Amino acid sequence: MPGFTRRAFGAAATLALAAPLAFAQPAGGPIKVGLLLIDSGPFATYAGLMESGAKAAVEMLNAEGGAGGRKLELVIQAHSGTPAAAVAAATKLAQQGGVSVILGQTQSSHSLALVPKLDSLNVLQIDHYAQSNDLMTKSCAPNYFRVNTPDALSTRMMQEFVKGSGAKTWNLISVDYAAGQSFSKAFGELVGGLGGSVQQNLFSPQGTTDFGSYISQLSKPADALVVTLYMSDGQSFAKQSRQFGLFDKYKLVLGNGFATDFQLESHGDNVLGVYNTLSWTPELPGARNQKYVQDFERIAKRRPFYTDADLMVALEAFRAGVVKAGSADPAKVRKALEGLKIDTIFGNVEMRAADHQLIRQHGMAQVVKGPGGKNIFQMKVLKSGPEIYPPASPECKASS
Amino acid sequence: MDWSQLFSVAQLANALALASLLTILASGLALIFGLRDVMNFGHGAFYMLGAYAGYSVGKLLGFWAALIVVPLLLAVVGAVFELAVLRPLQKRSHMDVALVTFGLALIIGPAVHKVWGTVPLSVEPPPVLAGSVQLFGTMYPAYRLFLIAVGFGTCLALAGWLKFTRSGMYTRAVSQQPHVARMMGVNTDRLSLLVVCLGIAFAGLAGVLAGPYLSVDPGMGASILISCLIVVVVGGLGSIGGAIAAALVYGFIQVIGTVLFPSLAVLAPYLLLFGVLLWRPQGFGRGRVA
């Protein structure tokens, strides 16, 4: 027994000393990238698409040599879709998965809950999903970066349409959570500033299946309708609106995350003619973009959507940060990313130092009948980042 | 707050459409509870299975065929459910059986996702019901009117079966006095098989009807199960008449909440449940399968 005790003690001491290193990333080993997915509720529907898009992007970047000679490795963590579950999943990714950066299906409420924890978890978040304006103003944080377009940008994109449409009265229906609330507020201000008015401003809880009572309220006359409903909510609304003939009552129907490209096939003709903000299509010019589309289709066996492109750019940004920092250490990558000009599938774009927002393009597209009878998006307006991004908010203290 | 909306024909019909779907589902749930004493937490999953099967059969044979074939298929599933799950567990506690049905839902859900995928599927109404019709001066979707007719027609048929047929009479007898009914020679096993098949077939019928009305998506089973349980509890556990009344109240409360108190609408069904349990804990009904 004495021998056992001494040996056991020695082994235990060695293990105890080695334990903290078990989750640290070895200098030459793969760099772990955390991917948060939602496995229940309306957003679970597209978790599979997000996963396949992430795997394809990682494979493409690894084929290009990875980040600073190190391969990228995806660590996937699914959760139930609440902000608390997102925080728990991100904590697991950081503490047990040993990831340097977190990407994935982070709704605005998730990112708003995650942002205060990123520093203590010693992890970066490069958001390509959440749209809340607060993430670039009062809730921005040093370890938080964003490559997708915030709501403020969608309203700026819509401004041209609002002006040009001649519509004076507007009805709005939005999902009743952070993104829907902030968009509806910003859009109301936009319309008010142009001398118009919002007549109906409805909010439906996430997961609403029967929109009949909302549609009946929206039947009160107005010139135009704006729909901010996502995923299966948007799909149910589109189908039921068609049965009610709702869209025929408006001169213009604008969608914000409503008639998305990844839902276009399942929407069928229910969203024909709807204008929607759209930040990317496979047809956009640029050799890198064309190569991305080709490689993506070969690997994922489907066409890429704008969400796939945003995820790819998040990884391209992370890679650029790692290369410049010469390390995957979150603090060093954070510093390297600030103000960095990055070659991406969107072209050469800047990660603004002041608020950690990627200054990238955004546009408006209309759902039209394509040559083969299939519905497609036709880009109507595409603006470059510097044309449309507002100046960084003084409220944001992200820059180190 | 727009009070005029409350009195519109469209909103009345919206409440009835939701109530119809819930009525069909809740009747099945109440039937199984009434006879078998089992709270079937798998009912939402059977409904989802019906909707997805309706999508596939509809694509192959058309909506009208799906409306017949899918409930029959689900009745077969119901037979397996009764023989393989409920009957072997009939001497176990309520909690044990309820947990097994809950587990069944957890199995059916991912199995459905595996077969049909997780992307919502679009089911359009048949051409004859695709458009809108004039309803007292308001254009209203024809499919929703059809749903209302089928929903309440099904309930009438169920009530007729319970009241005027021998098997219906046995069902009422077993649900109220199972031991006495057995002593009087009623074959309760055969009756249970019939009732469970019927209950699950109702879930399948509701699933097919929900396709063109709502959307066919992976979350549809879980979300409707909660509404359905509220309807069954408010209606009085096991009471068919109570479930119909509760579904109507549920539909109207949901619509009123959406129109008048949109931010509280999501809480309305729970407030209804809370209120009824305080005021009349036994629910609206007058007893099991009544």
Helicity range of the residues of chain A? 40-55%
As a percent range, the share of helical residues of chain B equals: over 70%
Report the uncertain regions of chain A: 15-24
Q: Which regions of chain B contain 5 or more consecutive residues with pLDDT less than 50?
A: none
Largest sheet of chain A: 7 strands, mixed
Per CATH, the superfamily of the largest domain in chain A is Response regulator
Just name the CATH architecture of chain B.
Orthogonal Bundle
Mean pLDDT of chain A: 89
Structural class of chain B: mainly alpha
Which key terms come to mind for this protein?
heterodimer, A: 400 residues, alpha/beta, Rossmann fold, 15 strands, 41% helix, B: 290 residues, mainly alpha, ABC transporter involved in vitamin B12 uptake, BtuC, two-stranded antiparallel sheet
Describe this structure in words.
- The complex is a heterodimer of chains A (400) and B (290).
- With 400 residues, chain A is of the alpha/beta class.
- Chain A has 2 domains: 8-149 and 284-359, Response regulator (Rossmann fold, 3-Layer(aba) Sandwich); 152-278 and 362-388, Response regulator (Rossmann fold), CATH 3.40.50.2300.
- Chain A has 14 helices and 15 strands.
- In chain A, the strands form 3 sheets. Chain A has a 7-stranded mixed beta sheet, with helices on both faces. Chain A has a 5-stranded parallel beta sheet with strand order 2-1-3-4-5, sandwiched between helices. In chain A, strands 11-12-13 form a 3-stranded antiparallel beta sheet, covered by helices on one side.
- The longest helix of chain A has 21 residues, at 2-22.
- Chain A is globular, with a radius of gyration of 23 Å.
- The model of chain A is unreliable at 15-24 (pLDDT under 50).
- By secondary structure, chain B is mainly alpha-helical.
- Chain B has one domain (3-118, 135-279): ABC transporter involved in vitamin B12 uptake, BtuC (Orthogonal Bundle), CATH 1.10.3470.
- Chain B contains 11 helices and 2 strands, in the order ααααββααααααα.
- Chain B has helices at residues 9-36, 43-61, 63-86, 94-116, 142-164, 166-176, 178-183, 188-213, 220-235, 240-260, 268-279, and strands at residues 132-135, 138-141.
- Chain B has a two-stranded antiparallel sheet.
- In chain B, strand 1 (132-135) and strand 2 form a beta hairpin.
- In chain B, helix 1 (9-36) runs antiparallel to helix 8, helix 1 (9-36) crosses helix 9 and helix 2 (43-61) crosses helix 8 (188-213).
- Chains A and B meet through helix 2, strand 7, helix 8 and helix 9 of A and helix 1, strand 2, helix 9 and helix 10 of B.
